[in-house]
Backbone:
């Protein structure tokens, strides 16, 4: 660590959203200098970053030029211009996670093939080049059942995913290369964040259970620890560790897993970065996911992932029907509830279901945290 | 809270040291805009503050002009120009804590009289106008025993305090108005931080025990919870609450207390702000002292002060013999110990015993935290 704090070391983060902001909050505890690449000076991380470079994460020149300015480059989003980070790596720059991992994870088709090649449990799938090829497969009787379609690239927060229940209705089928998978008969969705440093040290976070708001196609509550069996918990941790090791991962890897109605675990997808399902760790775990990402990225010893208190996390999202300069309601009432923590990301404009902040609700028992989180959910309104 | 986050509300903080920095780290979670007054642009809080105003906290114009720029003015140091904050208050500006409280606490003589007037336990004392008057009192036989002398104003971190053991040696006696008090036969030193908002809601933090490094005259370890009896704990909390209520305090009040060899509590002194003895709360308590100060200053409901894990805090101070651009050693080894958190304030220059950062050591048992804190203390070196 001395080499980072005793020098003019610069950490580069692509991009400056809420994950970048929370990463810089942790980095500031060690007095690290953080540079951010984002399209907007007033992005959430903008107020805290030492410097904001304006540019698009999908643009070769923006990413390449930014990477040249910093000592280690890391990410809050995996959909970065891959040629630029490969070129930076070729020139000897430190890119964490490795561009090869980013490239694999960017493409949900390659991700699924990776699980298949390593005999890791995931739902059966086929790859298609286009919407037309999927329609052909339906017409030829190759696809006979309702399915989930996922764009191979660029999906995020529920975008790039279509659930096709009626095979005769082609309207909802997405354009472009995609994968088609069987609808898993889901009992629960869980997530495990695993951290790994260059020396191969691995630490797993307690398993989190995610409940979904079917309307918004967004996480409703994140419950930690997950209400699953000890055996399922162990299996999830083994899976996450195995993926991180097979990828030779450095940094954080968030692994989203389905538990099907038979109690079997199936890998959904992974993200090579701090993750929405780890926000609660800021207050509920000895080492937050953001501090852990820094430790892993800087190849420092990883920190304890011991749970301090059970917690529930809810995203604070824009209420439907409002688009414009954001206004919050109900925050004060929430703060009157013991164990309620509020994080506002500083986004200026609200949109329906846009992630504007989050609240972590701590309590001595998970039951109490769940009860209080329901109150918080009903109290907070994000309008314009 | 909505009135702060839905507007262009500005929080003003005098000054931008480590307490200011950690206050802004909390404020950024609510996306509050923080302005800082400090003599140096590159003060610890400088990297995070929305704006740094250059000026001296003892200077009337600097404080007055800064106060005019912000919506609520608060402090990390109580020795602020009192005329300026009184004038701001007279003009209707929000100053928290109240200038009258700052004025009382700035003057250790007035503080002692306050305890005396309210029958609060504190060691007997006399006030003296000058060093000469003290020497007169020694010569005339009015002072007959070894004593502790404290400058009435400006003392901080062990400065402005003299322990006079040899009444014939006048060299160590401080100049200027001071108070002379009997040396308390100290068994332990403890501290309680109490928070109070405008509505009179009060929350006390768990009592902390401070052990001192006799060489540096600085805190060595801060141990939470304090290893004292339940009765002493209750007494300390009652005392702290009483002082906060008598002062009609808004904000945080840190109360330092001696436990004498007979087990009796005696108030040492108070500070109306976040305090060194509360740094551990960032990781070990549900609501950190910094979040609590924000809640109290903004007149929001106060948060839970429940302890999540036992903790020990040690200051990371400049090693004696080094003055110059700072270099840290041993940090990485510390991070390898479970539950060790490192905070570096970002001061560029180290000096002997200068507070450069702190480490909080969390563990399931206080014994383990104490063992690990001893390792951390021996590992970290701050040199130049």
Residues:
């Amino acid at each position: 660590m001395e080499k980072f704090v005793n020098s003019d070391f610069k950490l580069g983060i692509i991009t400056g959203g809420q994950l970048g902001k929370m990463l810089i909050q942790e980095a500031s505890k060690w007095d690290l200098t953080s540079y951010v690449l984002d399209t907007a000076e007033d992005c959430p991380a903008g107020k805290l970053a030492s410097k904001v470079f304006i540019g698009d994460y999908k643009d070769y020149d923006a990413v390449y030029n930014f990477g040249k300015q910093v000592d280690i480059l890391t990410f809050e989003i995996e959909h970065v211009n891959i040629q630029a980070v490969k070129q930076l790596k070729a020139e000897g720059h430190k890119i964490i996670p490795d561009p090869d991992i980013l490239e694999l994870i960017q493409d949900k088709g390659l991700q699924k093939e990776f699980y298949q090649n390593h005999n890791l449990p995931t739902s059966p799938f086929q790859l298609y080049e286009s919407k037309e090829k999927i329609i052909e497969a339906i017409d030829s009787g190759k696809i006979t059942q309702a399915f989930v379609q996922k764009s191979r690239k660029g999906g995020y927060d529920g975008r790039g995913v279509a659930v096709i229940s009626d095979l005769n209705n082609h309207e909802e089928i997405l354009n472009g290369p995609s994968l088609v998978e069987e609808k898993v008969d889901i009992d629960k969705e869980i997530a495990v964040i695993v951290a790994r440093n260059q020396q191969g040290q691995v630490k797993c976070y307690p398993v989190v259970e995610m409940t979904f708001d079917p309307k918004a196609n967004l996480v409703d509550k994140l419950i930690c620890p997950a209400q699953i069996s000890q055996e399922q918990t162990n299996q999830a941790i083994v899976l996450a560790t195995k993926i991180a090791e097979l990828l030779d991962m450095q940094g954080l890897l968030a692994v989203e897993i389905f538990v099907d109605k038979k109690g079997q675990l199936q890998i959904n997808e992974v993200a090579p970065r701090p993750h929405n399902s780890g926000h609660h760790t800021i207050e509920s775990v000895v080492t937050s996911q953001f501090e852990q990402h820094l430790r892993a990225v800087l190849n420092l010893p990883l920190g304890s992932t011991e749970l301090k208190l059970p917690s529930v996390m809810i995203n604070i999202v824009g209420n439907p029907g409002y688009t414009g300069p954001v206004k919050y309601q109900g925050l004060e009432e929430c703060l009157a509830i013991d164990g309620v923590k509020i994080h506002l990301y500083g986004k200026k404009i609200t949109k329906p279901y846009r992630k504007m902040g989050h609240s972590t609700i701590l309590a001595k028992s998970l039951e109490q945290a769940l009860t209080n989180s329901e109150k918080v959910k009903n109290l907070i309104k994000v309008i314009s």
In short: The interface with chain B takes residues 1-2, 5-6, 21, 25, 28-31, 33, 47-48, 50, 283, 286, 295, 300-301, 303-304, 306, 308-309, 326-332, 335-336, 338-346, 362 of chain A (CB under 8 Å). The mean pLDDT of chain A is 95. Chain A has twelve helices and 22 strands. Residues 254 and 271 of chain A are 5 Å apart (CA to CA).
